[in-house]
Amino acid sequence: MFFPNISRRDFLARNSHGFGAMALWHLLAQEGRTADTQPKQTRTNFAPRAKNVIFIFMMGGPSHLDLFDPKPKMKPLHGEPIPESLVHAKKSATGAVLETVMASPRKFQSHGQCGMEISEFLPHTAKVVDDLCLIRSMHCEQSNHDPAQLLMHCGTPLFGNPSIGSWVNYGLGSDCKNLPGYMVLTSDDGHGLEGAGSSLWSSGFMPSTYRGVTFRNSGDPILHLKRPAGISVATQRARLDALRDLNQMHFQTTGDDEISSRIASYEMAFRMQSAAPELLDFSQETKDSRALYGIESKNTRAFGTNCLLARRMVERGVRFVHLVHSTWDHHGDLNNRLKLNCGMTDLPSAGLIQDLKQRGLLDDTLVIWAGEFGRTPMGEVRRGSKAGKEGRDHHPNAFSLWMAGGGLKGGYVHGTTDDFGFNVQENPVHVHDLQATILHLLGVDHEQLTYRHSGRDYRLTDVAGKVVKEIIA
Questions:
Q1: How far apart are CA 375 and CA 392, in angstroms?
Q2: Residues with Cβ within 8 Å of residue 287, at least 6 apart in sequence
Q3: Which residues contact 121 (CB under 8 A, 6 or more apart)?
Q4: Helix axes 257-279, 301-315, angle to 10 degrees
């Protein structure tokens, strides 16, 4: 309607709702609650060394002393009191002072051209050491599973924050259109998953479209994904189009970015109905390829299938693949349970490195093998365990992990610990440093990748972290 003689006061009154809506939208955007807060698909700060990540998380805390960090000086002190210089004010996660040295019975040998020392429990990993970057000087402040796992994944020991996979996909997006950009595959040693569980692949305060999608390695990849019986593709497409239109109308009214996530999840599920079964079809894999992962062996089949799926996912452009294996929480019967877990995971982990390398994928794929902390050099006996069935308690002061590919030095050992593997001695690497380095290898400055929530700019590394440049090739 045209008003030929409208006053300034009438003009402002008639358009106040428009100004108010503009102001409200600006405030919502500042709080990270609108679709505008989502970054462009590829927002690198510099040339990336890696395009994809496979994060193999060994939930529970593998013993660095029995796998990666040999301490021969402990052997003559086995069963003796630990030096007072280490024990003073140092307690286990359960509160008891542990004072008796427990030397590792594992044999360590040098392997590869680099001469990296690896435990006898990891014979297949030993064959690929020239491709590994082993960090022996990891440390953190958290000595219990949930907060330590959350710190490793989310940069904070608190629940409710986005996982590293969510951060990576928020910052970079995914090259894969028919599968989620963040996929999660789980396995265990028969005791079930433990610790912080699905919070480790949560999107936290980010839109749920960035959450890790759990993918089953047998049967239906995702439950209820199949098209209902009697529903044609055309009918399903028409229903989704109608839902999309209704959701978009609702979004225009509310500005709730979860509605955008809902629209995206419906569309992704529709595309996955054909992509997911094809991903699980191993018929095109050669016999040698399947053998690399131990697919035919009962002992290695579950974890090996996940490792093979991880390779197939990064081939298809999935940005972040998260493998979770539980449980390495060996408070008792360490020798037997450690052997069990190594037997399930050693061959497939090494097979993944070999397969990625021979396909030319390792240069662009960053592989990480890590737990949330290490284990004590002192023995632990709990719940009536008999002699010979001792274990080790949680130990955040020093632990080991390995990485491969994605622009890292191969055949390289970074950092050292003392003669008991109790404290870091040289080149300490905090969990935040690890996270900063992962983002750096992906071409992202960890200080620049932020998400505004509740009036604050959050980042994966919180207010800490520095890139470990010494391990980059």
A1: 5
A2: none
A3: 66, 67, 106, 338, 339, 342, 346
A4: 110
Neighbours of 7 (CB within 10 A): 9
**Axis-axis angle for helices 334-358, 301-315 (nearest 10):** 30
Contacts of 412 (CB under 8 A, 6+ apart): 114, 132, 133, 134, 471
pLDDT band for 9, please (50, 70, 90 cuts): low
> 398: closest CA among 414, 418, 379, 368?
418
User: Which residue in 266, 268, 263 sits closest to 180, CA to CA?
Assistant: 268
Per DSSP, helices labelled H in 255-396 are 257-279, 287-293, 301-315, 334-358
Q: How high is the pLDDT of residue 228?
A: 66
Q: CA–CA separation, 149 vs 450, rounded Å?
A: 21
Q: Comparing C-alpha atoms, which of 225, 209, 221 is closest to residue 165?
A: 209
Q: What mean pLDDT, rounded, does the chain reach?
A: 85
What is the model's pLDDT at position 75? 95
pLDDT band at 83 (very low <50, low <70, confident <90, very high): confident
DSSP strand E in 40-98: where? 52-59
- CA of 252: how far to CAs of 38, 131, 210, 257, 297, in Å? 17, 51, 21, 10, 54
H helix intervals, 107-163: 145-154
Round to whole Å and give the CA distance between 347 and 128.
11
Q: Are strands 320-326 and 52-59 parallel, antiparallel or unpaired?
A: parallel
**Please, how many CA atoms are within 13 Å of residue 322, restricted to the half-sphere of its CB?**
27
Please name which of 187, 193, 184, 188 lies closest in space to residue 211, comparing C-alpha atoms: 184
Each residue's pLDDT tens digit, 310-358: 999 999 999 999 999 999 999 999 999 999 999 999 999 999 999 999 9
Q: Tell me how far apart the alpha carbons of residues 76 and 109 are, in angstroms, rounded to a whole number.
A: 19
| 209, pLDDT greater than 70 | yes
Q: What are phi and psi of 129, to 5 degrees?
A: -60, -30
Q: Distance (Å, rounded) from C-alpha 96 to C-alpha 82? A: 14
Q: Are 194 and 148 in contact (CB under 8 A)?
A: no
Nearest alpha carbon to residue 369 among 312, 307, 462, 426 = 307
CA 139 to chain CA centroid, Å, is 17
Q: Has residue 400 got a pLDDT over 70? A: yes
Q: Is the dihedral of CA 340, 345, 346, 348 positive or negative?
A: positive
**Which pair of tokens denotes residue 333?**
């019967």
**Single-letter amino acid, residue 135:** I
pLDDT at 27 over 80: no
> Mapping DSSP to helix (H, G, I), strand (E, B) and coil, where does residue 90 land?
coil
